[in-house]
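hey so i finally got around to running the thing on that chain from the lab meeting. sorry it took forever, my laptop kept dying and i had to restart like 3 times. anyway pasting the input first so we r on the same page abt which one it is
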Amino acid sequence: MLDSWMGRGQKGSDGHDKVGLGSIRRPVIGLALGGGAARGFAHIGIVRTLVAHGIVPNVVVGTSIGAVVGGAYAAGHLDTLEEWARSLQPRNILGYLDIRLNGSGLIGGHKLAAQLEAAFGHVLIEDLPLKFATVATEVRTGHEIWLTHGRVVDAMRASYALPGIFSPVLVGDRWLVDGALVDPVPVSAARAFGAEIVIAANLSSDVFAHGTTIHSHGPSGEVTVAMAPDPVVEPPPPKRGFGKFFSPERTMKREFFGSGGRPGISSVMVDAFNIMQDRITRARLAGDPPDLLISPRVGEIGWFDFHRADDLIAHGVRAAERAIDSIQEAIHILAPASDKAGATIEKAP
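ok and heres what got predicted. didnt touch it at all, straight out
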């Protein structure tokens, strides 16, 4: 895990990592993975590319889907997550929507949680081979919560619990929801956990026009402003047996995704959340910018396009490849001068 950025380290007779003509204490590298629902599969391509170039993070902090990918990498299950992601089709995704007609979220999240449980089991954060944390938001207080111990699965679920869509998750004595409400790209947390170089992945950097102001808008001519009517839906043909009865779950799924050009519940809530996240991300990154920013061009892919994992992972690979030279240059610059001269220094923790 602590190989030099120049290649896989070899230990000398004194037990220190040796590379080339001298030895290098590589700076502690932190990886901050941002939120973005399905777009987060791009993180898989980013992590794969960084590691393939010998840029191995010592600290990983994730928000929302970034918490899922970061946790999978930290726990050694990135292969499992990638295989599952690439297998998703629209029909599979519907199977994970355990719609609820009561409670504090449209989706109970138990089916998805069961999938995570099967993959990660009872792995604890404190037992992972590197520093890992997820970011969540406490309901009522709005506190930014850094989950640094306990089960990896619980930390993931709390971090991606999109308000109104997923039910809040109880961790300890706090009800937690999506961390993107307070910190969409957790640069500050990665730095607080000891990262000397923070590489951040922002999934909303190419979502254009979110900051635009339309300063003159209204109806043209004599058009009267009115609420759009609900689309007319022809009644389905009568069914036999139990199929003729009203299916709340089927109706809720139809309302969830929308129909007839009218946005569904999910579209309205996610778009609102996406706009808010974009504004918060800009403010947080301006106040505490990462050392290097990776920005996959995934703006044209929707938050619920989980079936496009192949495209998203490829976007992540391309974005990381564009940043490799800059990352290696930054690591080389921050390596202590005495290291470059050939002195032996303890490797980073």
